[in-house]
Amino acid sequence: MRETSERPGDGPGEASGDVSGEASAPDGTTREADEQRRTRAAWRGSLRSLARGREAPMSERLAALAADAASVCDLDEAPDTYGDGVVAGLERRVAALLGFPAAAYFPTGTMAQQVALRCWAGRTGNPTVALHPLAHPEVHERGALSALSGLRTVHPTSEPRLPTAGEIQDFAEPFGTLMLELPLRDAGFVLPTWDELVAVVRAARERDAVVHFDGARLWECTERFGRPLPEIAGLADSVYVSFYKSLGGHSGALLVGSEELIGEAVTWRHRYGGQLFQQYPAALSALVGLDRELPRLPSYVTHARVVAEALAKGFAASALPWFRVHPQPPHTHQFQVWLPYSPEVLNEASVRQAEETKVTLFRRWRPSASGPPGVSLTEVTVADEGLDWTAEDVREAVGEFVRRVVEEEGRATSG
After folding, report:
1. What are phi and psi of 155, to 5 degrees?
2. Structural element, H or E, at residue 215
3. How far apart are CA 381 and CA 361, in angstroms?
4. CA-wise closest residue to 304 among 277, 331, 266, 271
């Protein structure tokens, strides 16, 4: 199990900033830190990209929040104190948006989801959680479900997709909660069809299990399912949503459920250290995201299909021996690209393209955990900045990228 406290690339293409313990460069900084600064400078200097990253300086982000916040809240009101004020208003708004009677704000999605699953274990009397082995708690939380809550996880499937109704029905041991990550990010932001999702939920209920959605990216699922958010969320007994991923907020998450569940969750939030004194900057940024980004997400999903198809055609016409765009077409506005080169080669080619052409096509590349040796993948996000890219723009950018990949691979093999 990979043990990282956060997913590489949460936010459009952004990688972890932890460079502690690495070899120092002569000036006393780390080589990794120097490379991060170079990379972020290249991204910041780009005139075109498919989505904004997290490279903007704090001064710009604070100025943007100050300019936008007045459109979502009366800034003459007092800031929140231990969850009242603007935070409570955000809770009410999202509970109504998703069709649930109650909601609780959490500083992180990791905490929100652990609390939800812990509460359900107590209510069902069964500490076993059925989920995918690529789900966030299994890959990115350092074994927190067992270490903090004594929960046990089981996997109805290991296929790179969510489980089917048949797999839930035929699973050999009981479980109290079925957790479904929508979309399943580490498998390629993949979703079932609507009918498949309904059947899976029904199968879990026939086994007397409750259903919890990891809906960190639930916001962009409406296009694939062809259903509004309340109908999607209403399939589950509880749902967690994130504000900083698709909506561009600074941080924060929300758990929605029944009055009774949320009342217990608030108690555990305090016990977990999540009852913060003030959180109004994050809450304001979440409200801005709900107003501005949420209505745009369907257009991002639609255009992601154009970008993915153009990427595939560009790679097919190039000198590269193999590629994969997955899934094709994308299920959301995010998808994966796989190439048969090392992350070092691909990252250098990506940064050089940004530096030399002022175009950021790809961001971070990493080894593929599920692919053969020598294969790397990156995640592509299409957002507002990418809507004016035509298919020809994408193909031209692929050509520039491939030229630099060939150059970097030649240097790597000759050196």
Report:
1. -125, 105
2. strand 210-215
3. 10
4. 331
Which of these ranges, 225-239, 290-304, 358-372, has the smallest mean pLDDT?
358-372
- Alpha carbon 196 to chain centroid distance? 22
Helix H segments across 257-296? 259-271, 280-292
Place of tokens 């900057």: 281
Phi–psi pair at 174, nearest 5 degrees: -75, 155
Residue 103 · residue 92 · CB < 8 Å: yes
CA distance 200 to 206: 10
Secondary element (H or E) of residue 381? strand 376-381
- Cα atoms in the 13 Å half-sphere on the side-chain side of 174: 10
Yes or no: say if 237 and 209 are a contact pair by the CB < 8 Å rule. no
- Residue 144 in tokens: 């927190």
Q: Report how far apart, in Å, the C-alpha atoms of 302 and of each of 6, 152, 223, 258, 329 are.
A: 28, 39, 8, 34, 10
Amino acid at 222: T
Helices 391-414 and 343-357 pack at an angle, to 10 degrees, of 130
- Closest by CA to 107, choosing from 219, 242, 245, 5, is 242
What is the distance between the alpha carbons of residues 373 and 109, in angstroms, rounded to a whole number? Answer: 32
**Chain centroid offset of residue 166 CA:** 28
Cis peptide before 321 (omega within 30 of 0): no
Alpha helices per DSSP H over 125-258: 136-139, 144-149, 165-170, 194-206, 222-225, 229-233
The answer to whether residue 19 scores a pLDDT higher than 60 is no
Strand, helix or coil for residue 180: strand
Whole-model pTM: value is 0.92
How sure is the predictor about 58, in pLDDT bands with cuts at 50, 70 and 90?
very high
